[in-house]
Amino acid sequence: MNMQSWWMTMDASGSTLEQRTVPVPQPGPQQLLVRMRAASLNRGEFIAGHGLYGAPGSWKAIGGEGAGEVVAVGAEVTGWQPGDRVMGRCAGAFAGHGLIDAAEALAVPAALSWEQAASVPLVFLVVFDMLVLQGRLQPGEWLLINGVSSGVGVGALQLGKVLGARVIGTSGSAAKLERLKALGLDVGLATRAADFAPQVMELTGQKGANLVINSVGGSVFAENVRCMAFEGRLATVGYVDGVLHGDLDIEALHAKRLTLFGVSNKLRTKAQKAAAMPRFRAEVLPHLASGAIVPLVDQVVDFADLPQAKAAMEAGAHTGKIVLRMSHP
Fold it and tell me: Which of 240, 98, 86, 215 lies closest to 145, judged by CA?
């Protein structure tokens, strides 16, 4: 049996997309074969430097997360059966069918549509890693999110509010910040420049932000350090600005006992990626099931229109997630 699948090649001049007809994959012993209903776009996959892509000039099936129905289960899989609604990280998710490792598979809460479910696995696992596992965010703390309107930014805002934080977000668009107030954004700072530290210090009573999420890159790194609190933590989760170096104030790092950490799955083993799943199921899924967190889907695009969806993401006019919808006859 064959299916449609999107492939991409990337080199110094940019990327090229191609739709191919390929065989439906077979599940390994610990995998689920899933009829994909929706898959969401992630900016990192389309940025060469993020390391989510293969060697320059090579072709690769793309898409990193999605949702659909289980079609078949591997020989060693327990707890799943055909027909179950599932979401998860999924290599090659922009396709009619995909494989999800059972260790990473998540049951789709009844409250979520396919498009919302497809917006959960990658973003919210990254956000859980940043805010909880590494960021140790506590109720009442100040959370600063650079680029708060991105998929990861919105997810961090939503989980941060559920955890009881006060959230400051930066964005180049005042309209996007206004839209995010409905999701609990306490303060929006309309700027793309590294000029926000004075306002953050004023808002926090000169104490600074306890946890800072930098999905922008090196252009705001030094400014983030300037507005961090005593024992503050700084998460680096991306660099859409392409600036890969930043000036580090060693005196501030030392005196304020700061923690700087990276958030990436690039070098992690399957076992390391799966290790966070039990806590994620226990601590985040209930908020999705109850409706306390509703994934923010900006737009849904038909499967054939992936090139337009990619262009929309690169234009940056969206707030939240852009999702690809699969149609099955």
Answer: 215
**Band (49; pLDDT cuts 50, 70, 90):** low
Residue 168's contacts (CB-CB under 8 Å, 6 or more residues apart) are 142, 143, 144, 145, 186, 187, 188, 189, 200, 203, 209
| 3-state SS, residue 104 | helix
Number of helical (H) and strand (E) elements in the chain, helices listed first: 11, 16
The model's pTM is 0.92
CATH annotation of 124-262: 3.90.180.10
How far is the C-alpha of 177 from the C-alpha of 145, rounded, in Å? Answer: 12
β-strands 31-40, 321-325: how paired? antiparallel
- Is 70 exceeded by the pLDDT of residue 50? no
Contacts of 282 (CB under 8 A, 6+ apart): none
What are the residue ranges spanned by the domains of the chain?
A: 2-120+267-325, 124-262
Q: Which residue has the tokens 């492939």?
A: 7
Mean pLDDT calculated for residue range 104-110: 97
Angle, in degrees to the nearest 10, between helices 121-128 and 151-162: 50
Spatial CA neighbour of 230 closest among 246, 203, 254, 248: 254
Measuring CA to CA, which residue among 211, 160, 153, 143 is closest to residue 179? 153
DSSP state letter for 95: B
| CATH class of the 2-120+267-325 domain in this structure | alpha beta
Query: Given pLDDT bands bounded at 50, 70 and 90, which one contains residue 227?
Result: very high
pLDDT band at 94 (very low <50, low <70, confident <90, very high): very high
Q: pLDDT grade, residue 54 (50/70/90)? A: low
Task: Give the pairing type, strands 85-89 and 106-107.
Answer: antiparallel
CB 22 within 8 Å of CB 3: yes
